[in-house]
Amino acid sequence: MEYTFRKQIERIVSLTDTEFEYVLSFFVRKKYKRHQFVIQEGDPANYEYFVLSGLLKSYILDEGGKMHILQFAMEDWWLSDYTAYLTGMPATTFADCLENSELLGITKENKDKLCSEMHKMEHFFRVKSNYGYVALQRRILSLLCNDAQAKYRQLFELYPSLFQRVPKALLASYIGVSRETLSRLTISPDQD
Amino acid sequence: MEYTFRKQIERIVSLTDTEFEYVLSFFVRKKYKRHQFVIQEGDPANYEYFVLSGLLKSYILDEGGKMHILQFAMEDWWLSDYTAYLTGMPATTFADCLENSELLGITKENKDKLCSEMHKMEHFFRVKSNYGYVALQRRILSLLCNDAQAKYRQLFELYPSLFQRVPKALLASYIGVSRETLSRLTISPDQD
Q: Using one digit for the tens of pLDDT, what is the confidence trace for B83-111?
């Protein structure tokens, strides 16, 4: 199952078997059941997670108790409360499992150590962070510019598999529209 | 003026004078007048810019010709059309100068070369990218959760100096509210 992880790294830098084993030694493997929390508001966020299998959502609860989805994460994606992870401050988000999930977690200390010891892993994480930045910019533009229908279609085009695995109410929260609005939306302009 | 640039780098890694000169040699210095374009939709985005002085805005024009501000950038900030810069595809955003500006620009090829030659610069750029990611996540949460008044106050708290330098109509565009709504907003709850 670590194969997907190695494949992701090797899309950017190449590793020998020994090097990959060494990289893996900086991570801990964790299993969570559906509905279990991986990150909780107010707790430290000690790990950044790579998803080996399963599906998670990360979200905040606003003052009125309303949930706002920050991201989903399925196989091959990364997830953390990055503000908390990078600063050591308590998490302001929650992350829980929509499916049973298996994760590789790395502490900030271990990640810094790995990056310092292996220049090519520092390169890998820089490139991944750049990709992440671009994905978030795209999301901001989508939130600013698009109407609900356009946001819904864009989400489907980017991540079609989410639509099989995530309840519609959570997709609605992700694109910031009400469930009632979402029920009127269609994926294709030609669809009924 | 490059002092602010060196100071930013040295908050993360330390450099000798010779090393800093070497880093600088990867950048080109560019001067732009107020209203000049630095990035234009449809063109390649060949540079990532560090702002030595001045103030820029980056934005998209939607199909109806409405402007949506993606970011401002003043002294000590970075700016590019990152999707275009990283992929080589044409820019989908514009960036122009709100004030006369002096920039340091680095091509992707030069940045990759610099990072590959100097591990500590790869580390610097990884850390900066992480910070950038966190800032964008905060903005997404603000767009999803906050009403106009809360977004306006949050923007003021994060970047008070923007309020002296940026017209209110552009601040309205940045937080995604109409100019009419913005005119009713106050910075402090106690303010008239």
A: 999 999 999 999 999 999 999 999 999 99
From first to last of the 192 residues of chain A, give the pLDDT tens digit.
789 999 999 999 999 999 999 999 999 999 999 999 999 999 999 999 999 999 999 999 988 888 999 999 999 999 999 999 999 999 999 999 999 999 999 999 999 999 999 999 999 999 999 999 999 988 888 888 778 888 888 888 888 888 899 988 898 888 888 777 877 877 665 443
- CA of B134: which chain A residue's CA is closest? A83
Tell me the Ramachandran region of residue B88: left when phi exceeds 0, alpha when psi lies from -120 to 50, beta otherwise. left
- List the structure tokens of A57: 């959502």
- The residue among A168, A171, A120, A188 whose CA lies nearest residue B123 is A120
Residue A69: strand pairing partners: A59
Q: Does residue B160 sit at the A interface (CB-CB below 8 Å)?
A: no
Cβ contacts of B79 within 8 Å, gap of 6 or more: B38, B48, B49, B51, B56, B58, B71, B73, B95
Name the 3-class secondary structure at A99: coil
Distances in whole angstroms, Cα of residue A17 to Cα of each of A12, A121, B27: 16, 14, 37
| Per-domain residue ranges of chain B | 2-117
How far apart are the C-alpha atoms of B105 and B29, rounded to whole Å? 6
* A116, A119, A139 ranked by CB distance to B140: nearest: A139
User: By the CB < 8 Å criterion, does B140 face chain A?
Assistant: yes
* Cβ separation B133–A136 shorter than 8 A: yes
Question: Which one is the CATH code of A2-117: 3.30.450.20, 1.10.3470.10, 2.60.120.10, 3.10.20.30?
Answer: 2.60.120.10
Question: Residue holding tokens 């299993």?
Answer: A31
Three-state secondary structure along A151-168? HHHHHHHHCCCHHHHCCH
DSSP secondary structure string, B127-160? HHHHHHHHHHHHHHHHHHH--HHHHHHHHHHH-T
| Total Cβ atoms within 10 A of residue A111 | 19
